[in-house]
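User: Please fill in residues for this 389-position structure.
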């Protein structure tokens, strides 16, 4: 029901009954409870349909909040959101780097406390802290983080540590799932739509939403499209396989291709310990300079990502694919164009229905905002509960 209130902005009890197929008596009971808890408020009167004008209801965005944290190696982004998932405040602090996990968590907890203090918000008003993380889920302990720091983090219970330090319930979720739920939560997306949000940062993953709920797989590791093998004889991947999409399609994969080839390393590398972001920028700049090597690297990336997504779309029969994350920041429209072309010519459902492809948020905040939405989604729509709090 909260889902209906959220997606329609304001709604009457009668409309709620019509759209939820619950009786008006049941609706009145639930509304009374939600009003007394302060989760929803009255929002004026709607238009009369014959009788007296109905009282409209909407989410109370000024009482309860959610915090989202996105762990990254260069930067950790922390956001504070209202009930509807809108951004109220953001801060960023230095990333995970080489520091031991407890030190990083202590810094994050300090930053969260400071953020709430600055806004005059009590911790009791925070429904939860959502944590967006990448990597492989290893049972109840949480996620392996980026492969470069995974050994330190994969046995570390990030959510429990953060919860203990902040005194606020914390939940950890894969970053692509966070972004997909963020899209669902704040974008007014209809719960019946089946869509996929692709998130590309260091790696690439997909949050697959079927009927309004994340598709999780048997070990919570579904959606790892970065490990679809696209070049069986390709470079070794951190997951232990070879030629995964991540080794070709992502900015980090492109840098890996450069460093593995002496000619390309000479052209785009900087000798010594390579700065990944700088190497990637040089490849993108090489496009403007008309360098065929740059064009080939980017074209391979774009084609491999689009081909993998076409395959996934043929399996899942989606109606919308959204490309998000900093990995799409510079070249996003090229990936969109290639995927649209492939879908038009090779999708199994071409001629049956269209699949819309769009570029979503590509900033650093998108995963943190999504993580806050995971809290909201899990707390307010338990029937679609995405993960445990
Ligand atoms: Zn892999």
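Assistant: Residues filled in for all 389 positions:
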């Amino acid at each position: 029901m909260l889902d209906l209130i959220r997606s329609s902005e304001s709604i009457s009890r009668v409309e709620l009954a019509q759209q939820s197929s619950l009786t008006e008596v049941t609706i009145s009971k639930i509304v009374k409870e939600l009003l007394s808890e302060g989760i929803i408020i009255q929002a004026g009167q709607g238009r009369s349909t014959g009788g007296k004008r109905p009282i409209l209801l909407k989410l109370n965005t000024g009482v309860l909040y959610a915090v989202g944290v996105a762990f990254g190696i260069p930067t950790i982004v922390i956001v504070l959101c209202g009930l509807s998932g809108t951004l109220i405040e953001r801060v960023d602090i230095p990333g995970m780097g080489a520091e031991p996990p407890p030190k990083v968590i202590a810094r994050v907890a300090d930053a969260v406390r400071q953020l709430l203090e600055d806004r005059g918000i009590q911790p009791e008003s925070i429904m939860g802290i959502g944590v967006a993380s990448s990597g492989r889920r290893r049972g109840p302990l949480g996620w392996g983080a980026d492969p470069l720091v995974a050994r330190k983090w994969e046995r570390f219970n990030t959510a429990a540590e953060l919860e203990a330090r902040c005194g606020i319930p914390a939940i950890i979720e894969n970053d692509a799932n966070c972004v997909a739920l963020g899209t669902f939560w704040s974008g007014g997306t209809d719960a019946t739509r089946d869509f996929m949000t692709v998130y590309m940062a260091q790696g690439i993953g997909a949050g697959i939403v079927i009927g309004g709920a994340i598709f999780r797989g048997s070990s919570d590791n579904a959606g790892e499209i970065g490990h679809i093998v696209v070049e069986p004889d390709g470079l070794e991947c951190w997951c232990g396989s070879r030629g995964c999409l991540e080794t070709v399609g992502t900015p980090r994969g492109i840098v890996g291709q450069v460093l593995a080839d002496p000619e390309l390393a000479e052209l785009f590398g900087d000798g010594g310990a390579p700065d990944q972001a700088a190497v990637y920028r040089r490849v993108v700049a090489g496009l403007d300079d008309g360098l065929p090597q740059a064009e080939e690297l980017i074209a391979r990336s774009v084609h491999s990502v689009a081909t993998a997504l076409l395959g996934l779309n043929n399996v899942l029969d989606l109606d919308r694919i959204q490309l998000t994350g900093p990995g799409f920041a510079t070249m996003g429209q090229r990936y969109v164009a290639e995927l649209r072309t492939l879908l038009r010519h090779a999708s199994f459902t071409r001629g049956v229905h269209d699949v819309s492809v769009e570029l979503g948020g590509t900033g650093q905040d998108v995963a943190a905002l999504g993580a806050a939405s995971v809290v909201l989604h899990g707390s307010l729509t338990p029937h679609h509960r995405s993960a445990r709090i």
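For context: The chain has 13 helices and 13 strands.
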